[in-house]
């Protein structure tokens, strides 16, 4: 980790500026597997606080978040426990893929990032953002840059003269092969500047 931080500090002065302001970033990780992927689906396009509340309510109702428990729960019951109609569909599609063995989450760590993205995005409701953040948090690959993340985009706009995703991707080439760590730096900046804490649950 220290070597990776040194690499970024030598590549771009912005990382030293972030350390000077807020210290080194917290590296958030999550366990691999079904529950983490369910959490990421619920976190799509909502605040982290509301996503956490939703997941905990669903978990309390189900007892345990498993593919079979989700399949056995009606859409109405899921909606009554804070899961939107659309996300109930997504959770059930993921559950079916696990039960039918069309998706093997345990094997993903042995595959390339592109292979993982292809497998995950084949499931209805899992787009590039969800796949990339799963690869970053759960599989802990070192060169992930989840450009679909709004917090990342907003931070890059604040710190650099970029406005489009294309410009941001070109900019990120400077930080290869440590773009995962760069992303953690930018999320750290985003949260600290807004007096928010990292999401843990």
Helix-strand blueprint:
Blueprint: H1 2-11, H2 13-22, H3 34-43, H4 48-62, H5 67-71, H6 75-80, H7 85-99, H8 113-121, H9 128-137, H10 150-159, H11 165-172, H12 179-193
Helix pairs in contact: 1-2, 2-12, 3-4, 3-7, 8-9, 10-12
Description:
The protein is an all-alpha fold and 201 residues long. The chain has twelve helices and no strands. The chain has helices spanning 2-11, 13-22, 34-43, 48-62, 67-71, 75-80, 85-99, 113-121, 128-137, 150-159, 165-172, 179-193. Helix 1 crosses helix 2 and helix 3 runs antiparallel to helix 7 (85-99). The longest helix has 15 residues, at 48-62. The mean pLDDT is 95.
Oligomer: single chain
Elements, N to C (H/E) = HHHHHHHHHHHH
Low-confidence stretches: none
Count of beta strands: 0
Reported for the largest beta sheet, the result is: none
* SS element count, helices: 12
What's the overall average pLDDT, rounded? Answer: 95
Name the structural class: mainly alpha
Helix share bin: 55-70%
Nearest-angstrom radius of gyration? Answer: 18 Å
How much strand?
A: under 5%
Descriptive terms for the model:
201 residues; mainly alpha; globular
Write a short abstract of this structure.
With 201 residues, the protein is mainly α.
